[in-house]
Amino acid sequence: KAGVTQTPRYLIKTRGQQVTLSCSPISGHRSVSWYQQTPGQGLQFLFEYFSETQRNKGNFPGRFSGRQFSNSRSEMNVSTLELGDSALYLCASSPDTVRETQYFGPGTRLLVL
Amino acid sequence: QKEVEQDPGPLSVPEGAIVSLNCTYSNSAFQYFMWYRQYSRKGPELLMYTYSSGNKEDGRFTAQVDKSSKYISLFIRDSQPSDSATYLCAMSAGSGNTGKLIFGQGTTLQVKP
Prior knowledge:
The complex is a heterodimer. Chain A has strands spanning 5-7, 10-13, 19-24, 31-38, 42-50, 53-57, 64-68, 74-78, 87-94, 103-104, 108-112. Chain A is mostly beta strands. In chain A, the strands form two sheets. In chain A, strands 2, 4, 5, 6, 9, 10 and 11 form a seven-stranded mixed sheet that branches. Chain A has a four-stranded antiparallel sheet with strand order 1-3-8-7, with no helix packed on it. By secondary structure, chain B is mostly beta strands. Chain B contains no helices and eleven strands. In chain B, the strands form two sheets. In chain B, strands 2, 4, 5, 9, 10 and 11 form a six-stranded mixed sheet that branches. Chain B starts with a strand and ends with a strand. The A-B interface holds A 4, 31, 33, 35, 42-45, 48, 50, 55-56, 58, 90, 94, 98-107 and B 32, 34, 36, 42-46, 49, 88, 90, 92, 94, 97-106.
């Protein structure tokens, strides 16, 4: 089975812009979670989507949003970018039976200038 | 205080040594316990998954969960230079928080030939 894929892999934006990141889960996985990873805060949960519905949300401002499509692919959007949004954004997918066993993609490295 | 505490290291051991990695946590609702390995500039890779208390073994890796002490461990036997990476513990309460993983900061391990 192909793993989780994320596009783009690298992105450079400037403050105030918005960005959309994409994630394709492992075939058959309907749960997709998003995380932000920074050296200072580590891995922090953003949100989880299951069957096109947001099931859980972390403690991030409303500038961070996401959605899931009927084929389980997911996108996350960050509006009005801030310097502090520079991070590795990781997407993970999991099987329906145990949504805690998450398989991560390679991440999208976002740099905000 | 963070919900999950993990010593960031770095931990340096000679090849062939037994490595012990640990995490403590404060949330007694955690039921799912995972260990991930992350190589530099890659996404985390799921190594071990344990539900509730007990031990689990997979090849050179053994995971232990002691819920009474709120303490989990990962042991690596016959460590190899290829084991050099950052090891992250992750936990979830399941139920209403299904799909939401809380991560430790990660321990950097170096195995010297």
